Amino acid sequence: MRTTSPLWVLTPLAFALALSGCGSGSDNDLAVDNNAQSCSVVSSTGAPVVVGSGVSGDPAAPEAASGYRLGYKAKQSSKYMVVANTPLATKAGCDVLKAGGTAVDAAVAVQAVLGLVEPQSSTLAGSAFMMYYDAKTQKVVAYDGRETAPAAATGYYLVRQDQGDASSPAPVPNARRSGRSIGVPGVMRMLDMAHKEHGKLGWDKLFGEGIQLATNGYRIPGRMGDAIRSNAASLALDANAMAAFFNADGSPKATGTLTTNLPYAQTLRALASGGADAMYSGPLAEAIVAKAAQSVGDDAAKTPITPSLMTVNDLKNYQAKKREPVCTTYRAAYYVCTMSPPSSGGIAIAQSLGILENFDLSKHGPTNPANEGGVPSVMGVHLVSEAERLAYADRDKYVADTDFIPLPGKGVSTMLGKAYLKQRAALIQPDGRSMGVAPAGALGDVPLGVDKTIEYGTTHFSIVDAYGNVVSMTSTVESSMGSYHMVGGFLLTNQLTDFSAQPADSAGVPIANRVAPGKRPRSTMAPTLVFKGTQPGDFLMATGSPGGGTIIQYVLKTVVGAVDWGLDAQQATSLVNFGATNSATTNVDGANTSLDLTGLIAGLQAKGHTVNSGAQSSGVSTILRVNRNGQTKLEGGVDPRREGIVLGDGAL
Fold first, then answer.
1. Is 510 helix (H, G, I), strand (E, B) or coil?
2. Is the per-residue pLDDT at 1 higher than 50?
């Protein structure tokens, strides 16, 4: 139920009181938390600190983005919890949960703030996938808010200015910076759909924190400051981006700068009062289409820009979708549900787990896990990496938007068949030697070329509400700062570059992930839920990560860390990232320089693994439901490579 009462800028307490009286349920069925310390953090002195207050110990006080922050411990609460990659967004979601909102209500508030304070990773005009667990019905549903290609797009949309002319030059300044990379946005339609089905609080009351921050100001976080600086040249072609991210003298706004974004506040007001429709028709939709169609830059040189072919009708016709999640049993003891196509990440994670259950991973856990998750073992890294190589091989060949390109055989059931995955597992050398590059599985005569298109940025958050409902949601602008086109205070994505740029391979074989009108580009985003047993019901874990094409690796190591190696939520999240795409290179994250990884790397190299030990930037967020000291608790872990925090009932 959507209410349309006026909006005010509210203090957190007034905000919570206003929320508790609104929404689809009555006051009596809202699980309101009156603990004044909830949604705060505990300072070094033991006193609770309000996030965003600016006082000593405030985690929202910006500092330069660091590679890896040491000393994180799992946070515990008893009723509800939210983990997101920036403190202000986490606080917005927690306040909604405190007021009796559902996990979906909180997700709307989190996204509204993320688009403001983490524009390098997500946007109101972006895309997202959400896994939702309904505690009452014990059902899991997958929500698809992925962008689509415009109706005028063909297979040559990203490589030719004139799609019908084989001699036409490529889009300028490049495919990403042009309008051709901009997809028809989906995240707000998806959130609207989920809220109508699972929200308790009024939609119009979920944007207050975002409006307040955009209007009254916030300090630029470290990762946002770095993104503005590193993307300054491309942002400078857009006058709106210059106004939002640059000082009057033309210099980029630095980390810690107090800034506002009044157009963003106005957009949130429009969404709050008009619902998601405000983005898909009317003035805001027209402004999005006009910005995407920009043909020259706002810079002094008037740099040529190839325009998008998106129309207002593309926006009007966009539909979010509910899909059957990709679910599988693991070791006959767990039930794992993750995202279905157009995500390739869910199938790859489920395949990897199906391969790994043929090995006793419990023997190959990390050493000294109390120390930031510990140092992974050579065999642990080998088995997980080889399973991923096999899964990526199938992903690269077979997976795309199944509304356009069906999966081989009987679909998901074929790709996750236990017998098939046991055959794939038999390709892994038990002595630790790497296969290098894996072949795709023989799944029938499917004439498709292999697509290794690389994906980039994103953000992820996990939420459990007081009713037992769970959200795991990954949201994205694609590359850092998207397409650099800005309108209404938010950036437009470059999501269409997740399509294969060419419609066919060098032999002329069609590629599954080619551009087509209305099609959704393949993604690796993989929000994931884990349950004890062989069906939904006994919730164990919500997790997911940003990281583009390596999301599969980050999520899988977190699930394996918690399930096979018994790590707590923070240890599993902090654990060294490792894994492999289908290449000869095995990744071992060197971001935590306090750990000695030389033995691990040498051991892998001795087994024929080519090791990349450079620092990786993931952003895993994890919530576990655990039994500690005879009590069932929620336990949260936040990625030490990001700026996020864990909040819940009580001061954490």
1. strand
2. no
Residue 218 C-beta-side C-alpha neighbours within 13 Å = 34
CA neighbor of 494 nearest in space, from 163, 125, 243: 125
Q: Which residues are catalytic?
A: 458
- For residue 609, pLDDT over 90 is answered with yes
Q: Give pTM, 2 decimals.
A: 0.94
Number of separate helices (H) and strands (E) present in the chain: 19, 23
pLDDT of residue 447: 58
Q: What's the CA gap between 36 and 29, in Å, rounded?
A: 20
Closest CA to 100 of 207, 7, 16: 16
3-state SS of 322-346?
EECCEEEEECCCEEEEECCCCECHH
Segment 536-595, tens digit of pLDDT: 999 999 999 998 889 999 999 999 999 999 999 999 999 999 999 999 999 999 999 999
CB 626 within 8 A of CB 632: yes
Over the Cα atoms of the chain, what is R_g?
23
Give alpha helix (H) positions in 564-651: 569-574, 598-606
- 474 within 8 A of 551, measured Cβ to Cβ: yes
Interval 511-535: pLDDT, tens: 889 999 999 999 999 999 999 999 9
Residue 640 CA: distances (Å) to CA of 71, 230, 251, 346, 380? 9, 22, 30, 24, 22
Crossing angle of helices 12-20 and 208-216, rounded to 10°: 150
Report the alpha-carbon distance of residue 394 to residue 379 in Å, rounded: 23
What's the length of the chain? 652
According to the model, what pLDDT value does residue 156 have? 97
Contacts of 570 (CB under 8 A, 6+ apart): 72, 73, 74, 75, 373, 622, 635, 636, 637, 638
Sheet holding 645-648, edge to edge: 321-323, 139-145, 127-134, 470-476, 459-464, 81-84, 645-648
Nearest to 133 by CA among 589, 493, 479, 472: 472
Average pLDDT of the residues in 442-453: 70
Cis peptide before 171 (omega within 30 of 0): no
Cα gap 22→195, rounded to integer Å: 14
> What pLDDT is attached to residue 25?
44
Query: Could you tell me the end-to-end alpha-carbon distance of the chain, in angstroms, rounded to an integer?
Result: 33
Cα 543 from Cα 530, distance rounded (Å): 9
For position 411, what pLDDT does the model report? Answer: 92
Could you report the per-residue pLDDT of 28-48, keeping only the tens digit for each? 589 999 999 999 999 888 899
- The average confidence (pLDDT) of the chain is 92
- How far apart, in whole angstroms, are the C-alpha atoms of residue 240 and residue 485? 8
